[in-house]
Write a structure and sequence with these properties.
Elements lengths: L9 E2 L2 H18 L7 E10 L1 E9 L6 E8 L8 E10 L9
Length: 99
Amino acid sequence: MRCGGSTDVKPANDEVKEICGKIREAAETHSAKKFECFEAVEFCSQLVAGTNYFVKVKVDGGDGHIHVRVFKSLPHAGAELSVHSIQHDKTRACPLEYF
């Protein structure tokens, strides 16, 4: 990983799946809608003063996906999770990139 750059995109691991479980409600509030499902598919991350996670999330029974940017603060700051931004109207084929 480049200093300040993001990692390569890889399949969602247990940590990212857990993060998505914790931020689903915040993502639904941010989007002003309830999702049929909320399954992490793949992700990349960026180390800053904490970690930015860029996650592709399946949100319906078809090919509906969103890209969610989640910030996780450092442990001394409580390792809190917050939804920074969401890109809507994505599909499985849409590349996951920094946003």
